[in-house]
Amino acid sequence: MYKIAAMGDRDSIYGFASIGLDIFPEDRMDSPVLTLHRLVDSGYAVIYITEALAEKLEPELEQYRDKQLPVIVPIPGITGNRGMGMKAIKKSVEKAVGSDILADT
User: Which residue from 38, 46, 65, 98 has the least number of CB within 10 angstroms?
Assistant: First the structure.
């Protein structure tokens, strides 16, 4: 069975524990990069990651972008939405369709 995790600042991800997700607070990680790689190697199929942390890990996240698993989903943190999630969706749709059908008009 696949597992689901959430990574990021404690205040942003703490609620995920109440629905059974494994949480990995940034303040408890020795290295967010190593934590990400351990989650992937441990069979996590979905990893929610706060946008603030995703920005710090962008080069590492890029290597998983074209793989089927894990699905890494940027989520807004308590500091607000930075638009990373929508940018990732637009990029994926553009790759699949061949043009930017979600362009702002």
Answer: 98
